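Entry:
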Amino acid sequence: MAHAILKATGIEKAFYKPLKTDILKSISLEVNYGDTIAITGRSGQGKSTLLQVLGTLEPPCRGTLEIASQKVNFFTKNKIRCNHIAFIFQSFHLLEDYTALENILMPAKIARQNTSRGSAAYKRATELLERIELTNRADYHTKLLSGGEKQRIAIARALCNDPDLILADEPSGNLDKQTSSAIHSLLMDFVKQGNKALIVVTHNSDLASMCDREYELADGILQRKDAESR
């Protein structure tokens, strides 16, 4: 029986300045371990806002959110995010004066884990570097890397603490088609092999088609697209 990592029920979000604008309207979504979910739609429809709400970065105005069977609220959100969620962004958000290895280890440092050479976190980080085929870039400052290399480092960083749920916002939006294809395959392999869950916001039809389910967000409403329309 499938086990849910995320359950969102009746999520609503509005902004009130300068005028009240309803961004998300009664959105419900259930995501199981192993699921890959694509969210598509025109720019300005609230896709990134939805991802931020699902990732506990933004509170909904109404509705409930459960992650790993825990209800998300003001008191639990930080712990849940730290223990279960990782983010991948279009603009990488790497620390460019730190090395590739140091960037991958950053989530472990934030979680106050031992990251010294020989530690479990250090071993995992070096294994991730090997899996993304950038072991030879371990000691390079990330400002010296290409866009594709930076995004591979960002993916490895997201996986450093072994999260259950990966949230990706246009992870290949700044990359050329060939590099994007490699990034998509790498991300899907990580998710499927590790039985993780992925929710990705994307305009890339190739990436959306690789996911198990695709939803479109339009006028604040999230609707699943059937297989024939994909």
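Residues 177-194 form the longest helix (18 residues).
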